[in-house]
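With this grant's support, we have settled on a layout for protein records. An illustrative entry appears below exactly as we store it:
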Amino acid sequence: DVGIDAGQPIYVKANGHAELAGAGASGTATVAGFATASATSGNTVSWTSDGLVTLADWTAVAGSASLTPGARYFLSTTAGQITTTAPTTPGQSVVSLGVAASGTTLDIEIQPPIAL
């Protein structure tokens, strides 16, 4: 239903469509996986829920070109984004997504959301 960039975390809506996951609401915090390629609205999204996601530039997903090697990444309250800082506000969800294996690669380890 929306455009999705490679590397963005997604959830699957009740109608089977992919949407950008976000930790700000319980309905969008169950991450199915990461987009492996960009897709425009209305088109099929390729995604993976296991293994590694490698991007030359993570700016659109993590806010900087490189990941921090060894850092754990969480679902951001901004839909489609990841962050090294877990949410802390009641009503949000903490979702651990994986650990950066390098500046360009995230080792996916998606955990169920924990509601705050």
Summary: The longest helix spans residues 59-62.
